Amino acid sequence: MPHLFFCPDIPLAHISALHKFKTDGVLSITDRLLMIVICGFLLFYPATAHLFRIEWFVIAQVVCYFITAITGYLILKRIGKVKLRFSFHAPTIFKIIKQSFPYALLIFQMSIYNRADVMIMERLCPDGKIQAGIWAAAFRLLDQANMFGLMFATILLPLFGRMLSQRQDVQPIIKVCVNMLLPMSFMVAIAGIFFSGDIMHLLYKGSRGNVEYNIVFGWLMASFPSWCLMYVYSTLLTANGSLKTLNIIAFAGVVINLSLNFYFIPRLEAVGGAITSFITQTSLATAFMIFASRITRLPLNIKWAFAHVGYVLLILLTAYGVFLLMTNVSWPIRLVTFGAVCVGFMFIFKFISVSSIRQILNRGVRDA
Description:
The protein is 83% helix and 0% strand. The protein has 16 helices and no strands. Helix 8 runs antiparallel to helix 15 (331-348).
């Protein structure tokens, strides 16, 4: 009988592994929803609003995690017949640590090449805190956009694991996911590049007149397609158990990221960090695609690849056209027009079709 540590992610991982995706989706937002309710009440209720302290936030977070963990365990006990038992068996603990070490090393290396930029900026730039603030303002939106790709990775990991163990062909699922993720990510990235100034000015009044905000945001959003590709192909490698390959690629990412950061940041400050992030994520996405295709023997589809290239060229021309022909129109209308045309191209290129959406929904219903 499996042992569960007291952490919300453990029961959620078990529920996801059982392909209960609807239940996993609801539980995944439970702690955040409770945080919004509890902290929202404390912040807006007159008697507590002026007394709110950071300690209350921490306590609320612990309480929300506790409630989510208990709820997840109760659901898991019902659907998976899991018993919670507290015990300490040294050989078992060391075995778990040994088995978990490659995953922990991978997460550690990922945290370095994804988060080291801010620390380097703060220490190497004369106005380090200001540069870190510019970076954080731009990265916050990329972080939110990445939730779209992360949803796919959460579903794909147990799905790939089961399909690979049963020696099923994963190519159709990869094609459907990439067709949904990549065109959308290119649309968001190009919109972020062309409308960077307008978006930054809307969200941060202090960015007006400071082009550094716009440039940093543009470079970071340009890396969004790479993030989406990594969510698919790195998840495939993880499901295949190719931890050695993943760690080697991650180590290369650490070397690239730190080397370029120490070169660019003293010279270009936050912009240098954004350029480094783009190069790092693009290099990693390429490596993940190549190694995942080789290890799992995915066939090379040249026609499919050129279709994506053609789509990118078309939406680039569309973005230029929107800026040249709609100069007297407000930027929100131009942005909506650009998005509508891009979605239309997705259907023309058959990246998104009713049948592919039905395929994903039907599989989700069967697995739920």
